[in-house]
Automatic annotation (TrEMBL):
InterPro entries: Oxoglu/Fe-dep_dioxygenase_dom, P4H_N, P4HA-like, Pro_4_hyd_alph, Pro_4_hyd_alph_FE2OG_OXY, TPR-like_helical_dom_sf
Residue span, Fe2OG dioxygenase domain: 363-479
GO cellular component: endoplasmic reticulum lumen
Catalytic activity, EC: 1.14.11.2
Subcellular location as annotated: Endoplasmic reticulum lumen
EC top class named in words: oxidoreductase
Protein name: procollagen-proline 4-dioxygenase
One term of GO molecular function: procollagen-proline 4-dioxygenase activity
Record's function text: Catalyzes the post-translational formation of 4-hydroxyproline in -Xaa-Pro-Gly- sequences in collagens and other proteins.
Cofactor(s) recorded in Swiss-Prot or TrEMBL: L-ascorbate
Length: 489
């Protein structure tokens, strides 16, 4: 769409008053837009996505404001542009705004805290070996501001230092962003972190140069140094619990001695002549990957059905909170006859567990289709703790769950591949299930006693490049309470 706007620029510009200003704007937009129009995966990269949203929020409205000026006579191209704009506006329900810029900045910062990508590289346009658009100093500054707003002081400092290192080499020129401006922000960061002595050290080179504001800031930091409680460093933006989970998102942490005991097998199923290709990725408790259990056509069907029904989910950003979904949209798909019912039935045939839904007794919950965008993740949680929280799972509140009991097992279909990130991880048992299109992860949530198996704590790691689709089936206890036999092989 952006490209359509750009290629019409000469025609449009012919007829509007502020021709030079307008052409300059479009020329400025063209290189980046051309890039995005030629690469279908452009917006799947978090840095490109940040650029794209920024263009929609800060640049395109200026273009439209000029085209739609009252004094202009509109030629055909301009009218066409206007129609396209109106259509897009209608289709996307809301034109991106500051909130979206903020959310995409948060996603990028969050990815840094998980995957430790190189910030200088990111400013230069490289992320995990992939090319992307370089960040301008003002974009880097925006990220730093969002980091400060979210109290991610350690990250904010790292971005400042990287920007200082790259400043002389960035291709974007912005006079207002110079070394001194960044040092002032660094001083604020140290001030917030309780390190005012450090703030004064940073500003000392810039005092007495006739900058009143800086002299005032320097004096403020100096007069407010807390001699007894001056902090020595900015703590890392993490906690121990999170750290383990984040490490697992970065790489496999299973000891070799355990890996060597894992294996694959062909599991007999209730489907005649069919044996499922199963990989066992953890022994205690058993966690399985079933390969090739959902076709590309089926997966595409589910993704499309979900897209039709999505309502945008809220974006939470509360590091350390457990059980929140971030940048994630989900939809429940009832067992309609046809493709949905077949996928449900298949889970039963492959696992031997009852998955049928009936008005009298529920054996499994309907499918929940989930889409995670860039930075989308699911904090560590158990799928099965509701039994102990009657308010959440009581059968009056959720009549469709009658007779179900707790969730004995989880079946998770992966509906696409994710370029980087998005693994499902089990921090208690150092297990990492990669996202593989057509595969499904499967595990039991309950111990034979009916209690939650604490080793099944699991999480969805943030998506770095791409978007992740999965489809989850929670399988209920009641019909299967005598069936929980563990290994089948
Ligand atoms: O997306 C994932 O990898 C995990 C999803 C999950 O745990 C859930 O939906 O309950
Ligand atoms: Fe889960």
């Amino acid at each position: 769409m952006e490209f359509t706007f750009i290629i019409m620029r000469e025609d449009i510009a012919d007829d509007i008053l502020y021709k030079h200003f307008f052409l300059r704007l479009l020329n400025d937009l063209e290189p980046t837009v051309t890039h995005s129009s030629q690469d279908p995966g452009y917006a799947e990269n978090p840095i490109n996505a940040f650029h794209l949203i920024g263009r929609f929020v800060y640049k395109w409205p200026v273009v439209f404001a000029n085209i739609l000026c009252e004094d202009c006579t509109l030629n055909e191209a301009a009218l066409h542009l206007n129609t396209t704009y109106q259509t897009v506006n209608r289709n996307i329900q809301h034109w991106p705004d500051e909130y979206d810029v903020h959310a995409s900045a948060q996603a990028l910062l969050r990815l840094r805290t998980f995957y430790f990508f190189d910030i200088e590289g990111a400013i230069d346009g490289f992320l995990f070996g992939e090319h992307c658009q370089p960040l301008s100093p003002s974009q880097a500054l925006k990220l730093i501001r969002v980091a400060i707003d979210n109290n991610m002081l350690h990250e904010a400092r790292l971005w400042c230092e990287a920007l200082l290192a790259r400043l002389p080499f960035t291709s974007f020129q912005d006079e207002s962003i110079n070394k001194m401006a960044i040092f002032r922000i660094l001083a604020t960061i140290y001030d917030k972190a309780g390190m005012r002595r450090r703030s004064t050290e940073i500003l000392s080179d810039f005092t007495q140069l006739g900058h009143n504001e800086i002299d005032k800031e320097y004096e403020f930091y100096k007069n407010n140094i807390n001699e007894t409680d001056e902090k020595l460093d900015i703590p890392l933006y993490t906690n121990e619990y999170d750290d383990h989970y984040k490490q697992l998102c970065r790489n496999n942490r299973k000891p070799l001695s355990e890996i060597s005991r894992l294996y694959c097998f062909l599991k007999p199923t209730s489907i005649p002549y069919y044996k499922a290709k199963v990989e066992i990725v953890n022994l205690k408790p058993e966690i399985y990957i079933f390969h090739d259990v959902i076709s590309k056509t089926e997966a595409a069907y589910f993704r499309n059905e979900a897209k039709k029904r999505f309502v945008r989910s809220s974006v939470e950003f509360n590091e350390g909170d457990v059980g929140f979904n971030i940048d994630k949209s989900d939809v429940i798909l009832q067992d309609e006859p046809g493709i949905v019912k077949r996928a449900t039935h298949r889970v039963g045939l492959l696992t031997g567990l009852a998955t049928k839904w009936s008005p009298v007794m529920l054996n499994a919950e309907p499918f929940q289709i989930v889409n995670y965008g860039i930075g989308g993740m699911y904090h560590p949680h158990y799928d099965s703790n509701e039994k102990r929280v009657p308010d959440v799972f009581n059968e009056t509140k959720y009549p469709e769950l009658r007779g179900a009991g707790d969730r004995i097992a989880t079946w998770l279909y992966y509906l696409n591949d994710v370029k980087i990130g998005g693994a499902t991880v089990f921090p208690e048992v150092n297990t990492r299930v990669p996202v593989i299109q057509g595969a499904a992860a499967f595990w039991y949530n309950l111990l034979p006693t009916g209690e939650t198996d604490k080793r099944t704590l699991h999480a969805g790691c943030p998506v770095v490049i791409g978007s992740k689709w999965n489809k989850k089936k929670n399988i209920a206890t009641k019909p299967d309470q005598y069936l929980h036999v563990g290994a089948w092989h």
